[in-house]
Amino acid sequence: MTRRILMALAMAIAALWLPAAASATPEGYTRYFIGDRAAPTPAKREPGLLLAGGGDWDMNAFRWFVAKAGHGHIVVLRASQAGQAGEEFMNSIGGVASVETFVFDDRKAAYDPRVLSALEKADGVFIAGGDQSRYVRFWQATPLSTLIDKLARDRPIGGTSAGLAIMGWHGYAAFGDGITSPEALENPVALGVTNYSDFLHLPRMERIFTDSHFMIRERMGRLIAFIAKERKAGARNIVGLGVDEDASIVVEGDGTARLMAPAGTYGWLVEPAGLPRRAKLGQPLDYAPVRITGIGPHSRFDLATLKVTNPAFVGTASVMDGKLSGVPVPPVSRPEPKTP
Question: Where are the beta strands (DSSP E) in the chain?
Fold first, then answer.
């Protein structure tokens, strides 16, 4: 059975798990707008990726994104809440001509000509946080996802939290109730480990499996389990990229990247060696060694080669009988975990 068929089955199951939108609209979306639609884009737009880990926005990273968009017109996509992110761009980040937000409540909106036209005209596209299962459910294999891939060639695409979670070519769809690291390590190929592939195809993200709110929500174990399941299914060369809450990785058009983040937060490149020793249904994971490289404020990361220059830390972890050990401790203390 092909991966595409398996994904279609997973989405069908997800439709049963996920409740209908609380306030469905006739068009399948609600629109918010702020700014001056007629204003010209002041500067040249350029390609780039903003990979934000959720939580508070790093002002420097988001100003970088606005500059990549030529200080022009931003479109925000989301599937919950309202127009708050647009107001944040306009009033806190500043330097934009307008922000148009589309909040989806139905898959049909991903086919709507008005939504697609607004995206086509945007100087930058930002995917807000929320529930990534709704993004997969509403956007995968639609004209909207195809258009985002196209736009990434010459303008910036950004995402935070759930938005980051769908920016890799591989990711966690979060169908059902979500999964914790202990649960994923205990049964890495369970149906509850609802990974996806063949969604967005952003440049130089082919090998990347993204995860957000990374260490504060203790997601290292589940990211290793996600990679184990993907590699066992045939994606032999993928790696994990976790981004801490409040941190952002900004990626230039040539694939070179750097961290913009408060002290004590990092990017985490997770590279298990080969295939897992054990990844069977109903059995705990065995996977070793797992190389972990910290992307810090003085690091440079090349998405094309996966090389980190001047890493903040390097270590080797392992998973034996579903228990994770050996995760390196960064040189600056991490924040205490928050209640999920």
Answer: 29-35, 48-52, 73-78, 98-104, 124-127, 156-160, 170-172, 195-197, 208-211, 239-243, 248-252, 256-260, 267-272, 287-295, 300-302, 307-309, 313-320, 323-325
